[in-house]
Specification:
Helix content: 40-55%
CATH topology of the largest domain: Rossmann fold
Number of helices: 19
Number of strands: 11
CATH superfamily of the largest domain: SGNH hydrolase
CATH class of the largest domain: Alpha Beta
Strand content: 5-15%
Distance between the termini: 70 Å
Length: 495
């Protein structure tokens, strides 16, 4: 089924371009044979618009009067041209028809809305229904593969099967279901135009909230906060879970996130400094590192797809192999979302889900790890996970991360911000299975930087102040451990 509003808008766009071109020729007194060709094309475009209006059953009294008025004036204009009354014909075109065509555009923009179909019937589809901009759109139906729901209604909107789609004129099909076998088949059979597909489910899982609820809840918290912070924290999940900002004597915001590398530490810091309140008040940055930080590049890791949601907020992809594809998808998505979704739809989606996920996150940090209770299989699984984290030998990545670290430090110094480098504590099981080579390399790099830059370096990795009960898994501090480490940091940073 052809797009509804887009087809009419495209023809209106042609009419507007032709009007401008004809106006220009009239002003330059270039009334030759080619102007008649342009006028004929203009008339054809107007007829196309009228045919589309009739095809899609658009009924509006003001619109009908305007169409009739233009049609009558076109007949009069043609009669003038046929009787060699060129000046009179041009005057009718310029001073009457053009004005009425402009009025048609205004009327159509008021009454024509994008027709939307939602494919899927689930929690996300119901939420998307609330995110549609009904000033410019109308939701005409839901599509469900479950026969139990066919011909039922949600808030007056009918539920149909995909086989009934051919009976509906629509502009965009919003995908809210992961089962897209039917969609792919329709695309292959050319029963569906790819430009009409608005793949919201892919967006929300690859770029949006479900890609990382923790990341987006935290980012939303920052956007909604008073940004007069004394300090910012960056780092990977060990730092994210390990520092409780409320226990620091100065006011900090943590931009530490799961799987975050040095590149995105730097990018998130630049993002923070783009806000004037942060720039005017910040005095400290705690950079949470781990021994493999210089060997680690998220964009080249097994979790490289997480670069998508970083790109959403930082507009940076780093070395991600799918960057071009990702940029195109997001660009295409935004073009359509600006037409059919309400402003700040991302933030509204987050706010509708954050309470549930905050509870899940908080419950996870209440657990206590005890290596003595692990079976041999469970213990080997933990050991393998640690060894895999340190199974890295990427000299080019190390050199690139050193350059990023240097740039990060110099960014802080340029704003008179004190850097504090902090290494979180780990369980004994974790400590016993790391790579000594990577640890030595890390210390060598830190020593190299300490000769050139002034920063505080605090390493709690081997601290005996912590035991298994301070962690919820083999490497992440729980609530009890987070409180202990934060109080130690506070004392060591400020005395």
């Amino acid at each position: 089924m052809s797009q509804y509003k887009e087809l009419i808008n495209n023809n209106i766009g042609v009419i507007n371009k032709l009007q401008n071109l004809i106006r220009s020729k009239i002003e330059k007194n270039e009334i030759y044979e080619d102007i008649y060709e342009l006028i004929n094309t203009l008339i054809d475009s107007f007829v196309n618009v009228v045919n589309l209006i009739r095809q899609f059953g658009i009924n509006d009294e003001e619109l009908d009067i305007a169409i009739e008025g233009i049609s009558n004036k076109i007949v009069t204009m043609i009669q003038c041209f046929n009787h060699n009354k060129t000046a009179e014909g041009v005057d009718i075109l310029q001073n009457q028809i053009f004005n009425k065509l402009d009025n048609i555009s205004v009327i159509l923009n008021k009454i024509i809305k994008y027709r939307i179909i939602i494919y899927g019937l689930n929690e996300i589809s119901i939420k998307v229904k609330e995110l549609i901009n009904y000033n410019s759109c109308e939701l005409i139906c839901f599509i469900s593969s479950d026969s139990n729901y066919i011909h039922r209604k949600i808030d007056g909107i009918e539920i149909i099967s995909y086989n009934q789609m051919s009976g509906y004129a629509y502009d965009y099909l919003i995908i809210t279901d992961t089962d897209v076998e039917v969609i792919n088949k329709m695309l292959m059979d050319k029963k569906l135009n790819e430009e009409q597909i608005f793949n919201y489910i892919y967006y929300i899982y690859a770029y949006g909230f479900y890609a990382s609820p923790e990341f987006f809840i935290n980012y939303s918290k920052f956007l909604n906060s008073n940004k007069k912070y004394d300090g910012i924290i960056t780092g990977i999940s060990y730092t994210q879970k390990g520092i409780c900002t409320e226990l620091l004597r100065e006011r900090f915001f943590s931009f530490a996130n799961p799987t975050q590398d040095l590149f995105y530490d730097h990018e998130m810091m630049k993002l923070a400094l783009s806000f004037l309140d942060v720039k005017e008040t910040i005095k400290y940055v705690i950079i949470g590192l781990c021994y493999y930080s210089f060997q680690y590049d998220l964009s080249r890791s097994i979790q490289s797809n997480r670069c998508n949601y970083y790109y959403l907020v930082t507009k940076s992809y780093h070395n991600y192999s799918q960057a071009e594809k990702g940029e195109k998808f997001l660009s295409d998505f935004n073009k359509v979302s600006n037409k059919i979704l309400i402003e700040n739809h991302d933030r509204i989606f987050i706010e509708g889900h954050e309470e549930k996920y905050i509870e899940i996150i908080n419950k996870g940090k209440e657990l206590k790890f005890d290596s003595s209770l692990l079976s041999e299989v469970e213990k080997e699984k933990c050991i393998d996970a640690v060894k895999q984290e340190f199974n890295k030998d990427y000299p080019l990545t190390v050199e690139e991360n050193k350059a990023i670290f240097k740039e990060y430090l110099e960014l802080l110094y340029s704003h008179n911000i004190k850097p504090v480098i902090a290494i979180p504590p780990e369980t004994r099981l974790y400590r016993d299975n790391i790579s000594q080579r990577i640890k030595d390399e890390f210390y060598s790099i830190i020593n190299e930087f300490q000769k050139k830059y002034d920063f505080q370096f605090l390493d709690y990795f081997y601290s005996d102040y912590f035991d298994d009960s301070d962690f919820y898994d083999v490497s992440h501090l729980n609530n009890k451990g987070s409180e202990k480490w934060t109080k130690l940091l506070d004392k060591d940073i400020w005395g």
